[in-house]
Amino acid sequence: MGEYVLKGIPAAPGIALGAAFILDKQEFVVPPRAIMDKEAPIEIARFEEALIKTREEISEIKKKISVELGGQQAQLFDAHLLVLEDRSLIEEVVKRIKSEKLSAEYIFSEVLKKYVKIFSKIEDEYLRERVGDINDVGRRILKNLMDEDKLHELENLTEQLIIIAHDLAPSDTASMYNKNIIAFATDIGGPTSHTAIMAKTLGVPAVVGLKEATLHIRNQDFIVVDGRKGLVIIDPDEETVAKYRELQDRIVQFKDQFEDVKSLPAETTDGRTIELFANLELPEEVPSALRYEASGIGLYRTEYFYMNRVDLPSEEEQFTAYCQVAKEMKSRVVTVRTLDIGGDKFISSLQIPKDMFPFLGWRAIRFCLARPDIFKTQLRAILRATAFGNLQMMYPMITGVAELKKANAILDEVKRELHREKIKFDEDMKVGVMIEVPSAAMTSDLLAREADFFSIGTNDLIQYTLAVDRVNEQTASLYEPGHPGVLRLIKRTIDAAHDAGINVGLCGEMASDPVLALVLVGLNIDSLSMSPTNILQIKKMVRSISWKDAQVLAQEVLEYENGQEVEMHCRRRLKKLVPLLITDERGEG
Ligand code: PEP
Ligand code: MG
After folding, report:
1. Which helix (H) or strand (E) holds 463?
2. Cβ–Cβ < 8 Å for 532, 292
3. Residue with CA nearest ligand 1 atom 7
4. Catalytic residue among 80, 166, 368, 507
5. Would residue 419 show up in a list of annotated catalytic residues for this protein?
């Protein structure tokens, strides 16, 4: 048939060649295991034990949720308990273990798949939605029947894989850390969706918004993922494979060229220092932040803590994790961002429908202010951890001063509680504000009076300023980080921060693009925070330019007509200054 090229949106740079694995979230991959006749009763007993254990677990969670969140939320677990009591499902499993002589987990996974299929086709919306319950309970039973590690479909597979999915939720990508995954390709998604962010964190290429990847690619197809150009090539011919293998080698050599700046400061030729921090999604990434000598953690996205679990993380658990990260960062500053649920980040344990949390809806600080119980648990954990490490904290999605004051009032309440309980914490912990909504940028002079620092979140600031959904592939070409409208808001924020004598950093994806980071240096940003693998490139850029020149360039582009023009102009300028950074090999793979 010859090779077939799909075009999508570049989400994380690099090149990968390998076998495709289609991730179908409905499917459970449980390898069949034959049993002997006499083992059938043992398998049936194991199955029954797993049911009992699952029932106990769910009742326990229900109890916990009703204490933490109230009876109504807990009732949702009744549906889970009902699945466990479905006689026809149980009887079918028992019958088939006896007749087919296969392990309990395999038969159960097969019966489960059948149920999921039947329920997915039901017209009644209520019954159709029970698919989620069946899946959840099913996974739990499987986990109790077999080694948890073997349960997840990805974990059953040991070879290197390219994940193909219609969409990947942040909770999916979070569970892929440390797995043998060499690239991602999805049908939907935009350049700063969390699939893209997680791919960069994992240091693997990603292409999103391919529209029909799951239609054209079959399991085990040999494919190439070109994360720089946003291409996926199915059944590449020999020439293409050779070309990409050579490019892969050149990328490795390209990356090596930055090692020389690793231990040097990120300082321009005329002496302006820009602190380079790492973004952190999972505590497991700390070694990478240290490996690239990040000055600290500029953004610790704590919402990953709340994912892939059926309950909320306790104060103790959070406290332990924050302390651990702070300890491992060896006195470098760690900026913990309070819970930013919503948009494309969804927390299953809350049992609140996804459509309650759109990007313009009940998201981030709005949710936390409405749920002080959940918010205060996190604030207590963060404050307690300040006694053991260099931590600061910031709020996401603040829209103005009134909201900031409300959040700080809750923080004060928590501080008073800790005092009463005689629990130690750092009284002077710095509290910052993320500037990621245009109204916050426009009132940054007022916010600066109340905040200890600013961190500009351009992933959101761009989408809210240009009215372009950051995860929508249809409008991805309109998502212009260099748009003068965005740059002016950034400039306003930086100027307001400096007038008030506070620091201002930027932690959106824009910080890791050398072309745009050049403009940010020219706009006088104090620090940039990015996935650790990008730090050295940005340091190379900073060390190769003069601050004065960057300032002149930034002034010029503020007058341009659109973002593409800005990027083209700055790209040309950077190519002259640091040709190395504008080559085909840019990016990591
Ligand atoms: C941002 O919006 O730029 C940001 C860093 O936060 P997140 O990507 O987690 O929304
Ligand atoms: Mg954001």
Report:
1. helix 458-466
2. yes
3. 459
4. 507
5. no
What stretch of H or E contains 300? strand 296-301
Distance CA 369, CA 349 (A): 18
> What is the per-residue pLDDT across 228-261, written as a single tens digit (0 to 9) for each?
999 999 999 999 999 999 998 888 888 778 999 9
Strand partners, 188: none
Is the CB of residue 510 below 6 angstroms from any atom belonging to ligand 1? no
340 lines ligand 1 (CB under 6 A): yes
Q: pTM of the full predicted structure?
A: 0.77
**Exposure string (b/e) for 337-361, b if CB count within 10 Å is 16 or more?**
bbbbbbbbbbbbbbbbeeeebebee
**228 alpha carbon – ligand 2 mean position (Å):** 23
Task: Look at residue 435 in the predicted model and tell me its pLDDT.
Answer: 98
How far apart CA 376 and CA 356 sit, in angstroms, is 22
Q: Whose CA is nearest to atom 8 of ligand 1?
A: 459
Beta strands at 431-435 and 453-456: parallel, antiparallel or unpaired: parallel
Active-site residue 323, yes or no?
no
Probe ligand 1: pick from 171, 299, 460, max atoms within 8 Å of CB? 460
Question: What are the phi and psi torsion angles at 305 (to 5°)?
Answer: -60, -30
The band of 45, judged by pLDDT with boundaries at 50, 70 and 90, is very high
For residue 149, pLDDT beyond 50 = no
Other Cβ atoms within 10 Å of 180 Cβ, number: 14
Q: Which of 394, 19, 401, 8 is nearest to 210 (CA)?
A: 8
Minimum-distance ligand 1 atom for the alpha carbon of 508? 3
The SS3 assignment for 184 reads: strand
Residue 279 Cα distances to 302, 480, 507, 535, 587, angstroms: 11, 22, 7, 10, 17
Give the 3-state secondary structure percentages of the chain, helix then strand then coil, rounded to 5. Answer: 55, 15, 30
Per DSSP, helices labelled H in 257-400 are: 286-291, 315-328, 364-370, 372-385
CA nearest to 312, candidates 369, 381, 388: 381
At 447, which amino acid appears? L
Select from 525, 579, 569, 529 the least CA-distant residue to 551: 525
Place of tokens 């494979």: 241
Residues in the chain: 589
